[in-house]
Amino acid sequence: MQLAKLEIKGFKSFADKIVINFDEGITGIVGPNGCGKSNVVDSIRWVLGEQKTSALRSEKMENIIFNGTSARGAQQMAEVSLTINNTKNILPTEYAQITITRRLYRSGESEYLLNGVVCRLKDITNLFLDTGVASNSYAIIELGMVDDLLNDKDNSRRMLFEEAAGISKFKKRKKETLKKLEDTDADLERVEDLLFEIE
Ligand code: ATP
User: Fold this and answer.
1) Over 70: is that where the pLDDT of 2 sits?
2) Does 10 carry a binding-site annotation?
3) How far, in Å, from the CA of 74 to the mean position of ligand 1?
4) Which of 176, 183, 81 is nearest to 129 (CA)?
5) Does ligand 1 have an atom closer than 6 angstroms to the CB of 16?
6) Is 35 in the pocket of ligand 1 (CB under 6 A)?
7) For position 107, what pLDDT does the model report?
8) Which positions in this protein are listed as binding ATP (predicted)?
9) For residue 13, which atom of ligand 1 is closest to its CA?
C-alpha cells in the first residue's frame, strides 16, 4: 500500500486546490514556519475520518474550512482526496487504486466518497481497520503521541500492538455485536411489558 496522491481544496490554509504526488521513496515537506506543513498532515488525518477536532488542532470542525484572509473571502467547503495504491491488496477491496474523499460544508453537512461514490464514514474506517493507516493509528506519529506511548497513557501501547497484530477489527466487531444484543434485550423487555399489559 502506498500513498499516491493528495488533493486539498478549501482545507485550512489551502484556499486553492493543491495536488501533492507521492513518488517512490520518502517525500519531505519543507517550508517556513506557519506555511501549512502540519495542515497537510491534518488533511490526511481528516480524510481518513478523524472526528476529534483536537487531533486536527482546531476548536470546531467548521474551523478546518478556509477562513479567508484580508485578501480573499472564506470558502464554503473543504475537500480532501487521498489516492492510495493497493497493488499488494492490503486493503480489502478489489481495486488496485482507491481514492477516498471527504467534504465538509459550512452548513455542517458532510460527505464521504470511495472512488467517487458516496459512502458512509463506517465504510472508510472498516476499509482501513488493522492496516495501521486509520486516522488514529500509528501511521501518523506526532510529538504528543510519542509521550503517550512512552507513558502508556490510556493503554495506548496495547492499542498500538493490537492494531499491528490485526486484533482491533475483531474488538470493534465484538463491541458492535454486544451493543446489538443489548438493544435486542431492551426490545424484548418492552415486548414483554406490552404482552403483560394486554393480558
Ligand atoms: P510550523 O513549522 O510553525 O509548525 P507549519 O508549516 O506546520 O508551521 P501549519 O501549522 O500547518 O504551519 O499552518 C498554520 C497556518 O495555517 C496559520 O497561518 C493559520 O492561520 C493557517 N490556518 C489554519 N486554519 C486555517 C483556516 N481555517 N483558514 C485559513 N488559514 C488557516
Assistant:
1) yes
2) no
3) 15
4) 176
5) no
6) yes
7) 94
8) 32-39
9) 30
* Ligand 1 lined by 70 (C-beta under 6 Å): no
CB of 99 within 6 A of ligand 1: the answer is no
Indicate if the pLDDT at residue 167 is higher than 80.
Answer: yes
Mutate to test the pocket of ligand 1, among 38, 56, 72, 75 (most ligand atoms within 8 A of CB): 38
What are the DSSP calls for the chain, one per residue? Answer: -EEEEEEEESBTTB-S-EEEE--SS------STTSSHHHHHHHHHHHTT---TGGGT-SSGGGGB----SSSPPPSEEEEEEEEE-TT--SSSS-SEEEEEEEEETTS-EEEEETTEEE-HHHHHHHHTTTT-STTSTTS--HHHHHHHHHTGGGHHHHHHHHHHT-HHHHHHHHHHHHHHHHHHHHHHHHHHHHHHH-
Query: Mean of the pLDDT values across residues 66-89?
Result: 93
Cβ-in-10-Å burial (0-12, 13-18, 19+) of 64 comes to buried
The domains found in the chain, sorted by start residue, are 1-133 (3.40.50.300)
Task: Reduce the DSSP state of residue 196 to 3 states and report it.
Answer: helix
Identify the CA nearest to 53 among candidates 104, 123, 6. 104
